[in-house]
What does this fold into?
Amino acid sequence: MSTQLQKRVLVVDDDAGTCELLSAVLEQHGLQVDVASDGQQALDLLRKTSYAVVLLDLIMPVLDGFAVLDRMGEEGRSLPVVLVVTGADRDAISQLDSQRIQGIVRKPFDSEELAELVVACAEIRGR
It folds into this structure.
């Protein structure tokens, strides 16, 4: 298996089922996956571990995805972010700084499209 596909991905979502599904899809494509159920856990992991890509839900308890993006910027973390959103998040997405966002995946998502996007982001990050 390609070493580029041995990249670590952080999945951040408060829905355990979504985290399990995302993890399974990404692991099938050779990626290592860590999971955080809220924004604070995500920031804690980002400070301890190097990631190629972050998959980020916007609406979560404790610290939402907007705050995570802000803190990542404040801390100088420039890794690719893929938003995992519902249709209800559409207005909120328009308020985001698009330079930080490498892709948007809408729930329910197509597993292959998601995997292709994340693998592509991980490969770009690995160059």
In short: Helices lie at 16-28, 39-48, 65-74, 90-93, 111-126. The first helix runs from residue 16 to 28. The domain at 3-126 is CATH 3.40.50.2300 (Rossmann fold). The beta strands are 8-12, 32-36, 53-56, 81-85, 101-106.
